[in-house]
Give the backbone structure.
Amino acid sequence: MKQHGLNLKAGGAYYMPRLYDFLGRLRDNNNREWFKANKTEYDELRALWLADIDVMLAHMSEWWPSLRSVTAKGCAYRIYRDTRFSLDKTPLKTYFSAGTGLNGRSSHDPGFYLQLGPSRGSDGDESGLYGGLWCPDAPTLKKVRKAIVDNIEEFEEIVHAPEVEKFFPGWCGRMLKTIPKGYDRSHPQAHFLRMLEYGKFYPAGEDFFYDPSWPVRAAGLFSHLRPFVEFLDYSIKEEV
């Protein structure tokens, strides 16, 4: 059942503690046999999760209208891991995740990403809200670097906005050890130029997702990153 946009299972108990428990058991039994035996529970929890993602998207579309056509099914990632190019050969992810650019999950546009799951121990808890640009190809990265250098005052105003610094401090993503070719080592924007990905991160653990209003809260937090994502988006699409 749903009450005021909040996802509840039969009897009124909120589903999120069950989801975290399921993911914890999956982490300890990461094999296809166990997953097959518990597939019914997974399907139920995923349906509730997707409904909450749809609530989040509806609230996000209030400040980013192009998201009105995006659905949770188009944003949520599969739980099956692609092990072809990964050192981790376990068959299943131990977290739920969803992401959207302007055109849904499959888009390579700058956008938003959400992940929840139990703590990963020494690697830290990667659950949280992300915004930015990941895995851009070389031509795209070249455009972003040029846009930052050419519009550094605008870019710094965006990334140093009070709400961004409060909720999304610092950066996440891969970086070069040295400044890329074509730029002087003492370049004033050397830190930005060394970035291979431009990501902002808000850590959100169990306490965040145990609050049934998290889809609304997440949409509000993502709204602070709209100028940042828009800057990346129009920088990439701008004709050189």
